[in-house]
Write a structure and sequence with these properties.
Elements: E1 2-7, H1 11-21, E2 26-32, E3 45-48, H2 53-63, E4 68-71, H3 78-91, E5 95-98, E6 110-114, H4 117-123, E7 130-134, E8 150-155, E9 167-171, H5 178-187, E10 192-196, H6 205-213, E11 216-220, E12 230-231, H7 234-245
Parallel strand pairs: 1-2, 1-4, 2-3, 4-5, 5-12, 6-11, 7-8, 7-10, 8-9, 10-11
Helix pairs in contact: 1-7, 2-3, 5-6
The structure holds NADP nicotinamide-adenine-dinucleotide phosphate.
């Protein structure tokens, strides 16, 4: 039995877990950070909560006799990916990052790059007055001081903590459809979008809708990937896994 620890919290991790669950000879444990109250459907064994840094992850791998570590966390989950790479280097356990491809710019896209949320917030005054904001419920502090801009904030979990004074909050989980995003933008007279450069299909509809309406999109750039081998698709991750076993 090959014991696989899958660091999840993404659609890709879910897809990989579904595929692996059907493979004989593998035991899968999916690990979630425990940030969402309703993580949704899962396959294989599930654990939740931080490990306690690199030392904690190394202990967990040893205790659970893990043979392979696959990091399929979100492109912006930089800390856990760094910990996974460091732990794999320290323990010698084969390690792979499944990192979904970034979105690519198409004709008509009006993207403005930002290095982080603070940079995105600094770019808004003078650009927009009604902003669709999808940076996540824990990344809103930077926008809180923008007193004269109205925000439509869509998150998976309800927003707690600092947020802009003028705002409307929506909770929803993708995938989203382009027609619905168009309707939303028009209904709320949105004149700019702020998003992380997350990539993936589930949340691409807002990018397509912004293009259709000619809206600027402030695109917060991804953190640099942690060291180690990277694949972009679930199929490539499964191929890698077969080779590890061989
Ligand atoms: P992060 O900043 O890289 O991680 C912070 C800490 O949370 C890690 O050091 C680790 O704690 C714990 N952690 C994170 N992911 C974990 C996992 N899959 N299993 C066990 N512990 C985990 O991560 P984040 O940006 O807060 O994201 C948390 C989770 O949400 C990730 O699993 C990610 O896939 C998912 N997610 C993130 C975003 C995003 O925009 N960042 C978007 C969608 C989904 P210890 O050091 O104690 O081990």
């Amino acid at each position: 039995m090959i014991r696989v620890l899958l660091l999840g919290g993404t659609a890709e991790a879910g897809d990989l877990a579904r595929a692996l669950d059907a493979w004989p000879g593998y035991h899968l444990i999916t690990s979630l950070a425990g940030r969402t109250t309703r993580p949704g459907e899962h396959h294989g064994e599930l654990r939740s909560g931080g490990f306690g840094g690199v030392d904690g992850l190394a202990s967990y791998l040893r205790e659970q006799a893990i043979d392979v570590l696959i990091d399929a966390t979100h492109p912006f989950a930089a800390q856990i990916s760094r910990h996974a790479a460091e732990t794999a280097a320290r323990t010698g356990i084969p390690h792979l990052r499944l990192l979904r491809p970034a979105w690519t710019k198409r004709p008509g896209d009006r993207w403005i790059d930002a290095i982080d949320c603070a940079d995105a917030a600094a770019k808004l005054p003078g650009l927009a007055s009604r902003v669709f904001l999808t940076t996540g419920h824990r990344d809103l502090d930077a926008f809180a001081p923008l007193d004269h801009i109205w925000f439509l904030i869509r998150t998976i979990e309800p927003v707690a903590g600092p947020r802009p004074r003028l705002c409307c909050r929506l909770t929803a989980r993708g995938p989203f459809a382009e027609a619905d995003e168009l309707t939303l933008f028009q209904e709320y007279s949105i004149d700019a979008v702020v998003t992380k450069a997350s990539g993936g299909e589930a949340t691409y509809a807002k990018i397509a809708a912004a293009r259709r309406l000619g809206l600027p999109v402030i695109m917060i750039q991804r953190p640099p990937p942690s060291p180690g081998p990277i694949v972009q698709t679930t199929d490539d991750a499964l191929t890698w896994l077969r080779q590890v076993r061989a």
